[in-house]
Design a protein that fits this description.
The protein has an 8-stranded parallel β-barrel with strand order 1-2-3-4-5-6-7-9, surrounded by 7 helices. The chain has one domain: TIM Barrel (Alpha-Beta Barrel), CATH 3.20.20.30. It starts with a strand and ends with a helix. By secondary structure, it is of the alpha/beta class. It has 13 helices and 9 strands. Helix 2 packs parallel to helix 3, helix 3 crosses helix 5 and helix 6 crosses helix 7.
C-alpha cells in the first residue's frame, strides 16, 4: 500500500498557509508524493509550486481541478510550468467538482459533467504526452516550449461514465471519502470497465481523512467534511448501514450543515476514513488494502494537531 499526503486549504478558520506546513512535514517524514488540492482559497498550481520550493523530494500532483472551470491547455500548461520551476515531476488530477463550487464559486455552468470530464481527460492525456517542438495545441501555430510535466494523470471517479473515463485515459483513478466496502464495489466497477475496453486498469487511490489519537476538535473537523456526503447516492447508504440512519434522514429533509454536524456522533468520523489509535488506524489501512485500494492519500486532521504532525508521524513510510 502506497501512502501519499494531501495538502489542501480547508474552507474554515484554519490558517491559510496550513497546506504548506502539511506538505513540508510530509516531505521531511519521507512521503513520496504530495497532492496540492484545488479550492476556493488556493490555486492548485500556485500551491504546488510553493510546495516544490519549500520541500526537497516529494513528487507533486495538482488537483483535482474542475473540468468545467479549466480548459485542458490551462491544466497541462499549469503542470508543465510548475514542473519547470520546481524541477520535479508534476501530475494533474481532474474531476467534475460540485455544482456548489462550479456554479456557486466560479460562476460557470456545470452542464454535461460526465461528457466534459471525458473530453477533458482525452485532451489532457494527449497534451501531457506531447513533446517540445510540436504545436502546443494542434493547428495553433504556437510551438510547445516546455517539456511535459512528467507526472501521472489522475481522474476522480465514482459513477459509471467517470470510471470509464478513468480507465480510458488515466494512470490513476481517485476516490474520495470512501469506506472499504465502497472501495470493493468501485474496484470491481473499474475492472469491469477495463475488461470491456480491453485496457489495463489504472491504479486505484483514495483521499481519506485521517487522525491518529484524535482530539475532539480533530473529530469535529473530519465530521464537517462528512456532512456534505450524507445526501449523496452511494454514500448515504454507507452511513445508514453504519447506524446513522436518523442523521441521513435529517439531511434528506434539508437540515443545515451545523444541525447535521451536531447530530453526527464522533464515531461517525471513522466511517469513511482512518480514525483512532495507531493500532486501529493500521488495521483500517489493511482493510482498505484488502478491499483493493493501491494508494491512500492522507488528508490529515489539523485541528488539535497542527500540520497533522501526530498523524503523519504515526503513518510515515517505513
Amino acid at each position: 500500500m502506497d501512502i501519499s499526503v494531501v495538502a489542501v486549504g480547508r474552507e474554515d478558520d484554519s490558517p491559510v498557509e496550513e497546506p504548506l506546513r502539511v506538505a513540508v512535514l510530509a516531505d521531511r517524514l519521507g512521503y513520496r508524493e504530495v497532492w496540492a488540492g484545488e479550492g476556493p482559497t488556493w490555486d492548485s498550481f500556485v500551491l504546488a509550486t510553493a510546495i516544490g520550493a519549500a520541500t526537497r523530494q516529494a513528487t507533486l500532483t495538482a488537483g483535482p481541478v474542475p473540468v468545467s472551470v479549466r480548459d485542458p491547455l490551462t491544466v497541462v500548461r499549469g503542470a508543465a510550468s510548475t514542473a519547470a520551476v520546481t524541477g520535479r515531476p508534476v501530475g494533474v488530477a481532474l474531476g467534475t467538482s460540485s455544482k456548489r463550487v462550479v456554479e456557486g464559486v466560479h460562476g460557470r455552468p456545470r452542464t454535461r459533467p460526465a461528457a466534459t470530464l471525458e473530453e477533458s481527460a482525452a485532451t489532457v492525456r494527449a497534451l501531457m504526452d506531447s513533446v517540445p517542438g510540436e504545436p502546443i495545441v494542434p493547428g495553433s501555430g504556437f510551438p510547445r516550449r516546455l517539456p511535459p510535466p512528467g507526472g501521472m494523470l489522475t481522474v476522480a471517479a465514482f459513477g459509471e461514465r467517470a470510471v470509464a473515463t478513468a480507465v480510458a485515459h488515466a494512470d490513476r483513478m481517485l476516490l474520495d471519502l470512501v469506506s472499504p466496502e465502497q472501495v470493493r464495489v468501485l474496484r470491481a466497477r473499474m475492472l469491469a470497465a477495463a475488461e470491456r475496453a480491453g485496457r489495463t486498469p489504472p491504479r486505484l487511490a483514495a483521499w481519506l481523512p485521517a487522525a491518529v489519537d484524535p482530539e475532539p476538535e480533530s473529530l469535529r473537523q473530519i465530521l464537517r467534511s462528512v456532512v456534505g456526503y450524507l445526501t449523496v447516492p452511494g454514500y448515504s447508504d454507507v452511513f445508514v448501514d453504519a447506524g446513522f440512519a436518523e442523521v441521513v434522514e435529517l439531511a434528506a429533509k434539508g437540515a443545515d450543515p451545523d444541525t447535521l454536524l451536531r447530530a453526527l456522533p464522533p464515531r461517525a468520523a471513522g466511517t469513511v476514513g482512518l480514525v483512532g489509535d495507531a493500532g486501529t488506524v493500521r488495521a483500517r489501512v489493511d482493510a482498505y488494502a484488502e478491499a483493493g485500494l493501491d494508494e491512500i492519500a492522507l488528508v490529515p486532521a489539523t485541528a488539535g494537531d497542527p500540520a497533522g504532525e501526530r498523524t503523519l508521524t504515526a503513518l510515515r513510510p517505513r
